[in-house]
Amino acid sequence: MPNIWLWVEGKGEAPDRKTGKGGGATVLVRRILYEHLEAYDWDVTAAKVGNIGEFRKKMKRMVDYLRLRSEDAVLILLDLDDGCAATEAAALAEALRDLLPPKPIAVVFAIREFEAWFLAAAESLWGKPYLYDPEGKRDAKGEIKKYFQESYAPTIHQPSLSAQMDLAQAAANSRSFRRLLHAVEELIQAVQNGQIVVTP
Q1: pLDDT (tens digit per residue) in 70-126
Q2: pLDDT of residue 11
Q3: What pLDDT is attached to residue 21?
Q4: How far lies 170's CA from each of 34, 42, 46, in Å?
Q5: How many domains is the chain built from?
Q6: Are 8 and 49 contacting, i.e. CB atoms less than 8 angstroms apart?
Q7: CATH no. for residue 174?
Q8: Rounded distance, CA 109 to CA 92, Å?
Q9: Strand order in the sheet with 3-8
Q10: Other C-beta atoms within 10 Å of 196: how many?
Q11: Chain centroid, CA 17 distance in Å
C-alpha cells in the first residue's frame, strides 16, 4: 500500500506514540485521499518536526532518514504565523531540492495555524459561519474557543474536528487549504509517474 509520510509541527497534528492522542493532520489527509481523490489504496503516517525554524535545523537529517524509510512521498505541513506562504514555501522547497531527496515532497503552510482551516469550515462544524478571513490574523485557537465555549485542546479536538469538517467548505474559504488538496494530488501523481519532485 503506497504511503504519504506527514512531517508536521505540533502535538495535535500527529498521534502521540505513547497515548495515541492527536493526529488531526493524519485524519485530514486520509479524508482528502479517500473522499476528495478516491485514492483508497493509500495510507498516511506522521512525524513531528517542530516549527519552520526547528525543521530547517533538522531538514538534512530528515531527508537522510527518508532514504531508509518505506514511505513513497512526503507532505510537509507547517504553520506560518507571519510572512508570505508562497515565498516561504518556494524557499523551503529550493533548500530541500538541494539535498536531493529520494522521494517526492510537497510543502504546504497552514496560514497562521492549522486551526484556521476549522474556521474556514466553521458552518459545517458549529452551524454558523466564521464572518472574518480565517487566515487574516493570528490566534485561530482563540477564535475557536468562542465556538466551543470551553477549553480547546489540540490533541483532543483536532482529530474530531478534522473528521467532521466539510472539505469543500474549507477549500472555498481558505487558499492554503486549496493548496493542501492540490499538494496531496501532486504527490500521488508524482509517485504514479515515477517522478521525484519538490513542489511549493
Answers
A1: 999 999 999 998 888 889 999 999 999 999 999 999 999 999 999 999 999 999 999
A2: 73
A3: 60
A4: 17, 22, 22
A5: 1
A6: yes
A7: 3.40.50
A8: 11
A9: 43-48, 3-8, 73-80, 105-111, 198-199
A10: 14
A11: 19
Strand spans (E) along the chain: 3-8, 43-48, 73-80, 105-111, 198-199
Question: Where in the sequence is the domain holding 30, given as residue range(s)?
Answer: 3-199
Residue type, 57: K
Q: Specify the pLDDT at position 184.
A: 98
Chain centroid to CA 182? 12
Using an 8 Å Cβ cutoff, are 112 and 135 in contact? yes
Provide the Cα torsion 4, 9, 10, 15; round to 10°: 10
Q: Determine the pLDDT at residue 12.
A: 76
pLDDT band, residue 34 (cuts 50/70/90): very high
pLDDT at 49: 95
Beta pairing partners, 5: 45, 74
pTM equals 0.94
Name the grid cell of 19.
Answer: 497515548
- Four-residue CA torsion sign, 7, 94, 3, 44: positive
Across the chain, mean pLDDT equals 93
